[in-house]
Amino acid sequence: MKLLFDNNLSHKLVQRLSDIFPGSSHVMREQLDESNDQEIWLFARKNGFTIVTKDSDFNELRLLQGFPPKVIWLRSGNCRVTHAERIIRDKFIILTEFYLNENSGIIEIE
To answer: DSSP assignment of the chain, as one string?
Structure first.
């Protein structure tokens, strides 16, 4: 599973999680940091990414357009990079099961 981190998450997560999510990226790295959510959504769909975000906008897009891409909604509020990394690492098995589940388009983690 390749993750695409939204602007509201640190670009440092790409490197920090590269051992378990190789091929991941950040919207800034893909020159999408000035793009709207729809453009990010389409990029993720076209390139096989799962979006990781801290806001509800992508949930609304999922309701309107279905999936892919899948969305991981990090519901931890403002937190340090190390805390976000720990949450994602701790949920690795759950996230893998979510990714493989053809009937699920979003997961909320905290």
So the answer is: -EEEE-TTS-THHHHHTTTTSTT-EETTTTT-TTS-HHHHHHHHHHHTEEEEESSSHHHHHHHHH--SSPEEEE-S-S--HHHHHHHHHHTHHHHHHHHH-TT--EEEE-
Long-range contacts of 107-110 (CB under 8 A, 24+ apart): 107/70, 107/71, 107/72, 107/73, 108/73, 108/75, 109/72, 109/73, 109/74, 109/75, 109/76, 110/74, 110/75, 110/76
Low-confidence stretches of the chain (pLDDT < 70) are none
pTM of the model: 0.95
Q: Is 4 exposed, middle or buried (0-12, 13-18, 19+ CB in 10 A)?
A: buried
Nearest of 97, 99, 82, 90 to residue 24 by alpha carbon: 99
pLDDT at 102: 94
